[in-house]
Design a protein that fits this description.
By secondary structure, the chain is of the alpha+beta class. The protein has one domain: Calycin beta-barrel core domain (Lipocalin). It is 18% helix and 54% strand. It contains one helix and eight strands, in the order αββββββββ. The chain has an eight-stranded antiparallel β-barrel with strand order 1-2-3-4-5-6-7-8. It is globular, with a radius of gyration of 24 Å.
Amino acid sequence: MAVKDRIMPMKRTLPFFAVVLLLSGCASKTAGSTVVPGGTWSGDYGPDGERREPIKLELRWEDSNLRGVIQAGVRELPVTKTFFKPETGAIMMEFDAQGNNGQTIHYVIEGKVEGNAMSGSWSHDSQRGDFRLTKR
């Protein structure tokens, strides 16, 4: 094989790798949220795609603490615990609600903030579901 024959494949391969490098640099990264989750969020929640209920979430920053109130129907439920990680957009909230028989039900919410959208899952006892919210 002549030197000329070995150089030709390299000439074809080099532009391919340059394009791959360029595209990999432009690929979207799974960066965290640039939107701070304070403000009014509205959407729905439910145990499945068929049974959905409207919900509203008011979040505000008090110093470095995130506080909030969930409005579901006529109930206003204060958020008792929050965690937000801006690098990943991860958000976690907890709150208590009164059940039909007067018992306290402890909800745990885990989700992700991506731009003006927040979505994730909720659970209490053996119940589970999801939620989808949009920032107003």
